[in-house]
Write a structure and sequence with these properties.
The structure holds 2 protein chains of 2 kinds. By secondary structure, chain A is mostly helical. Chain A is built from 18 helices and no strands. In chain B, about 75% of the residues lie in helices and about 0% in strands. The longest helix of chain B is centred in the middle third of the chain and has 24 residues. The chains are: A mainly alpha, B mainly alpha.
């Protein structure tokens, strides 16, 4: 029976540990460039387009890509490509059509967070949008961070054969050290390194596998002999296909991805970032699909995988068919994929509490100087990180329940609101608040009670519902305002 | 098999082509 090994080989362990220690060195370097809160939260709006492109695609892709998509391709065959097509196209368009105008406006308003932008765009002096956003980010994104911490700790615990609690502590400490040192700049440059590690694994791995199998025809022939549906791209059915493509609808509303666009030095450079980011997304996405297909051809029965879990196919192939060095790098790659999402999300959670809640609402009347704001941001990263770790350890069931709604909830709450705030002059503060609440609530309700019976993915429903809420409430608010005018 | 090859090779190529086209078409004229 194929198994995946612990990293007992000294060389594999060394390679893996290097991938772990590099982030702290990057954090130290980034600290030299971090002089104020703007540097700490959005890299002083001076980030290079290559860093923005790779950071955006690396933060957006978690273990879901490496483990989830390869597992999907293992189970469903080539139809799994539809799961990557949706978000890749969504991200391509949002780099240019959301990122560019958003960076333009946030530069003019001097905004550091997405909620800063909404507040200035709608002249929301009562902070209604900000407070609604803080609650939604506080719930969904904190659960997301906690769940990713758990996933990262599991990978680390397996790789090093250490208890889960110790792995959780090491992951948390590692992330917090470089985040406190270098904030956004450390996170973004670490994303670049991780994007390089991930693409290396996701290109080399399938290329080697195809060579071993004797080419694409041999691979598809083997799969077809196992089950003809595996080589039929539409065998997954129309409902699943729409759901797969619908995953992309969540992309424009992820605050940790959108903040990347706000950090670029020049909005025009997001066009180049779109091309580079799409290239990276395509290679990583299709690489993960090929890994799943190769895994199915080499280990045809899922019960032969550890715990019968198709998502283990990446680790099994890496362990069985690669030497120690590559295995160390590939396991490091999975851990890297997880960390690159966690740190980006944790920084947004911290910025939400320190900037959106504390500075702008609770202490709005107090003027803090830049040194105090920077110090406070660093403290809040530690507090938010420790809170997420405690949450991850003590409330695992709640975390796993909440994270089911996280991608869809954030996507439906912020995606339609952001798109309409940019492109519809008629949108109002009341409409945006209504859209955010509708998006979050409909996602939870649909996922909880209607998703399974109908087979319809929650975002396909909650995204249009949020658009409708924004349009209807905005029109009503405008009509009321005009009616009240003498 | 043809369908599988199309989604595995032609589809990613088409996505990259679209990215290139968007890059060219969204250039803002310099003032």
């Amino acid at each position: 029976m194929p198994t995946y090994e612990e990293l007992s080989d000294p060389l594999a362990l060394t390679i893996f540990l290097i991938t772990l220690s590099l982030p702290v060195l990057i954090g130290l370097w980034a600290m030299l460039r971090t002089r104020d809160q703007s540097d700490f939260l959005i890299g002083g709006r001076a980030m290079d387009r290559v860093v923005v492109a790779l950071s955006a695609v690396s933060s957006g892709r978690s273990s879901w890509l490496v483990l989830g998509v390869s597992g999907m391709a293992y189970t469903r065959g080539v139809g799994a490509v539809w799961a990557v097509v949706g978000y890749i196209l969504a991200e391509l368009f949002q780099f240019i059509y959301i990122g560019r105008p958003l960076r333009q406006a946030t530069g003019e308003y001097d905004n550091l967070t997405l909620l800063d932008y909404f507040e200035d765009r709608f002249s929301d002096r009562r902070h209604l949008i900000r407070i609604t956003g803080v609650v939604i980010i506080g719930i969904f994104l904190t659960a997301y961070v906690a769940a990713q911490f758990n996933a990262g700790a599991k990978a680390l615990s397996t790789a090093l054969d250490i208890p889960l609690l110790a792995a959780l502590g090491i992951s948390g400490l590692l992330i917090m050290v470089y985040m406190v040192l270098g904030g956004y700049i450390a996170v973004a440059y670490n994303d670049v390194v991780r994007a390089l590690i991930m693409i290396f694994g996701l290109v080399l791995f399938p290329a080697w596998g195809l060579l071993q199998m004797g080419g694409v025809d041999a691979l598809l022939g083997t799969l077809s002999a196992l089950d003809p549906a595996l080589v039929d791209p539409v065998s997954i059915g129309f409902g699943v296909l729409i759901g797969f493509v619908g995953i992309g609808l969540g992309s424009p509303g992820q605050p940790h991805i959108v903040v990347r666009y706000m950090s670029v030095d020049d909005p025009e450079r997001l066009r180049f970032a779109a091309v580079l980011g799409t290239f990276w997304n395509v290679v990583m996405g299709w690489g993960a699909v090929f890994i799943g297909l190769l895994g199915r051809a080499l280990v045809p029965v899922a019960s032969a995988l550890p715990e019968g879990d198709p998502e283990m196919v990446f680790l099994v192939l890496a362990s069985d068919y690669f030497g120690a060095v590559l295995y160390g790098l590939l396991v490091g790659g999975i851990f890297a994929a997880i960390l690159s999402t966690v740190d980006s999300q944790l920084l947004v959670v911290a910025s939400t509490f320190v900037r959106d809640l504390y500075e702008k609402v609770l202490r709005a009347h107090v003027r803090l100087d830049e040194a105090q704001k920077l110090w406070l941001s660093r403290v809040v990263v530690v507090v938010a990180g420790v809170a997420a770790l405690v949450f991850a350890w003590l409330a695992q069931d709640l975390v796993f329940w909440l994270v089911l709604f996280a991608w869809g909830g954030l996507g439906a709450a912020f995606g339609p609101a952001l798109i309409l705030a940019i492109y519809w002059k008629g949108s109002t503060r009341a409409g945006i608040v209504a859209g955010m609440v509708t998006g979050a609530v409909v996602t939870i309700v649909w996922k909880q009670w209607f998703s399974d019976p109908t087979g319809i993915y929650e975002l396909v429903v909650s995204f249009p519902a949020a658009v409708l809420a924004i349009v209807v409430v905005s029109l009503l608010a405008r009509a009321k305002a005009e009616g009240a005018r003498p | 098999m043809l369908g599988a090859k199309l989604v595995l090779f032609a589809l990613p190529a088409a996505v990259l082509l679209l990215a290139g086209l968007l890059y060219l078409l969204t250039r803002r004229p310099t003032e």
